[in-house]
Amino acid sequence: MKKILCASTALVAAGMLTAGAASAAEKIKLNVGGYSKWWVVGAWQEKEFQNGANGTIGASANGGSAAGVQRQNVDVKGDNEVWFSGSTALDNGLKVGVMMSLEGGGHTDGVTDGIDNSYAWIEGGFGKVLIGAHANGTALLHVQAPDAASNFGNGGMMMGNWSITKPAGVMGMNQRVGYTTSSNTTAIISDDKAEKITYVAPSFYGLTLGASYIPNVSKTLWSGTSAVSSANNSFGGQHSRGAGSSGMGAFGGAAMYANTFGPVGVKASAGYVWVDLTATGGAENALTQQAYGAQLSYAGFTLGGSVQRASDDKKNGGVKSAVLAGTAQAGNYGGKGFLTNAAVSGTAGAELDFGGVAYDIGLQYASGPYAVSFAYFKSAVVGDTNLRMANSVANKDDTIEAYQASGKYNLGPGVDVLASVGYIEYTDQRYGTTSTVANNQYHNAGWTAMTGLSLAF
Q: Whole-model pTM?
């Protein structure tokens, strides 16, 4: 993959050098676009989890509030972005442009970045090159289950864990570097739009290829749970991969095919990401993620689904002590379990597996201004590996399972009324292995019903 990306970059550079003198006809002028979505959300979850062991949400031992504040059954949530984009054509035929997206609030989570995407791009006969903070090539080309309200995925109100509380110990796919949160999607988004370079080739008979190089998948420059000092932010930053560091380089490639054959539409995608986890002086280790998806459409119906699989690439007999013992590094990419006990995780010859699988499937029907859909999602991910080694929880995973029906009605250009009804269930690997009171902390499920308005501008 590295050789393919380097070759592609060389082709781009050669094309630029031989294109002749470059001068812009005029300076880039920014255009404004974006969207605003607001939802009224109803959520009803298990009382056993909400009350927990001491009347708190999920109990403080599992991330709940020690003050015991109960939650409302109705809330207002939003998803808003303002886009600033512009481009210009150079005299040599190249096009250059810029894109920035500003988060406009709505989730009120207190941690959403002010700027989501920020990148520049160059386009010509060789294809398109993006450099900056943006989704990687596998995510850009990924095909997954359809949803009429665009509400079934990582940005969804239920699937984004905004409505029914996810127990803190439950791991999903695509855990972001430096965080304990995870996403419910089959797209490979673990790098969280870290700075990267992405190449997308011109489409050829419906086939599009793309590749990304991510020098440091730690977008926010974290190491474990502590902010990295400025001394480590020199050229290359955390990519030194010292013991306990979460600075990891990654390569990824993807392909998407889209075409129509008479009345039948076909889409398919495949993506692969390799992440270097080798520590200085330690055993060689890596994580890999694969994602596949497909859709078939006919007479207004669209049937589609996708799957993602993440796993470690163990070497030197699978011994993790030299790289991961006593750190959360394994849990910092792709939804992997945490290693916190060096005495356990460093056992010679221990075969400790990290990884998981997620898949979705959905059916949508659209006709005129109407669209309705139903989708299903499930993930099973290795949670805390130390717990997994105990006999009581051997071979058990953290699981997330969700169902959602959605609808959309278009009122006019850029104006849609949305609705979704769904059910989601979270299960920690420890559920059913301890006392009833403790079990309440390790499982939660609930229904959501929501309606909203989407404005595109």
A: 0.81
